[in-house]
């Protein structure tokens, strides 16, 4: 199961459909590991379920390659995700939520996630003004701000 989640996360993150204007970036005050630890604590503190923490740099190292620190946290809350899937079952392709924490070329750590409104934009049954989209957007904003040290 853990292997499946890792492959799913890598596939979703590599998707060409993710345009830069659909991504929300938050500058972190710490490094990737400490920022991811803070994000994990914030998610657990909010009562959400953590499904996986994927360390891309460790995966690259295992393949004999180098990659700057980069980790993804996959998490969710059925109270927010279920209504989206009830509106359109294809929302399950985008859920659970994911936040990437990576180090850029200058050594700065960033938290990045896809804007929920944009994420579900192509789905017919999802209304941009749905309460659960606003709740997801608010939760991601609060969680990443807290993890960033802000």
Topology:
Layout: H1 2-13, E1 23-27, H2 32-45, E2 49-55, H3 56-62, E3 70-76, H4 78-87, E4 97-103, E5 109-114, H5 116-119, H6 131-148
InterPro entries: DUF302 (IPR005180), TT1751-like_sf (IPR035923)
Domain DUF302: 54-116
Keywords: Signal
Summarize the structure.
The protein is of the alpha+beta class.
Strand content: 15-25%
Please, what is the CATH homologous superfamily? TT1751-like domain
CATH class: Alpha Beta
Order of helices and strands: HEHEHEHEEHH
Radius of gyration: 15 Å
Main beta sheet strand tally, sense and closure: 5 strands, antiparallel
- CATH architecture annotation: 2-Layer Sandwich
- What is the terminal-to-terminal distance? 34 Å
Number of strands: 5
Low-confidence stretches: 4-19
**Helix share of residues?**
40-55%
Give the overall average pLDDT: 89
Our count of helices gives 6
Shape: globular
CATH-derived topology: TATA-Binding Protein
Widest beta sheet: strand line-up: 1-5-4-3-2
The domain tally reads: 1
Structural class: alpha+beta
Structural descriptors:
150 residues; alpha+beta; TATA-Binding Protein; 6 helices; DUF302; TT1751-like_sf; Camphor resistance protein CrcB; signal
């Amino acid at each position: 199961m853990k292997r499946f989640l890792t492959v799913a996360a890598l596939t979703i993150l590599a998707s060409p459909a993710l345009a830069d204007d659909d991504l929300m970036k938050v500058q972190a005050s710490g490094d990737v590991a400490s920022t991811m630890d803070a994000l994990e604590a914030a998610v657990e503190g909010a009562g959400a379920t953590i499904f996986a923490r994927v360390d891309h740099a460790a995966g690259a190292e295992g393949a004999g390659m180098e990659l700057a620190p980069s980790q993804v946290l996959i998490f969710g809350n059925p109270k927010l995700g279920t209504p989206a899937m009830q509106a359109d079952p294809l929302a399950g392709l985008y859920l659970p939520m994911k936040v990437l924490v990576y180090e850029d070329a200058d050594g700065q750590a960033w938290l990045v996630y896809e804007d929920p409104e944009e994420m579900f934009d192509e789905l017919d049954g999802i209304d941009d003004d749905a309460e659960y989209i606003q709740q997801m957007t608010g939760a991601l904003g609060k969680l990443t701000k807290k993890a960033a040290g802000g």
